[in-house]
Amino acid sequence: MSDNDDGGRRNLRMPEDDEVFATVTNMLGANRVRVRCADGVERTARIPGKMQKRVWIREDDVVLVEPWDWQDEKADITWRYEKQDADQLRDEGHI
Q: Residue 9's pLDDT band (boundaries 50, 70, 90)?
């Protein structure tokens, strides 16, 4: 019997105070992507160096972004969800 008996539900990383869910809409190149955030704002997001070679980000991926304090139209990507995790977030009504 598996450890989690609730139909395969996994505990996912949820946004902290300054993070929002976003969907990648466009790859811009030079470690930049265009994202549509859950708060309705389109932002240019930066893929940080620690994620560049380890995490592959594609269009339509669900990510967590941290909007910049001093420029609201820009953000940093802090986390990328796998497809099944994104589906779980949709099913539970988070995004």
A: low
Average per-residue pLDDT for the chain: 85
H helices present in the chain, as ranges: 49-52, 83-91
Torsional class of 12: left (φ above 0), alpha (ψ -120 to 50), beta (otherwise): beta
- 10 Å Cβ neighbour count for 22? 27
Rg of the chain over Cα atoms, rounded to whole angstroms, equals 14
Walk me through the domains of the chain, giving residue ranges and CATH numbers: 20-88 (2.40.50.140)
- pLDDT at res. 5: 40
Is residue 34 within 8 A of residue 45, CB to CB? The reply is yes
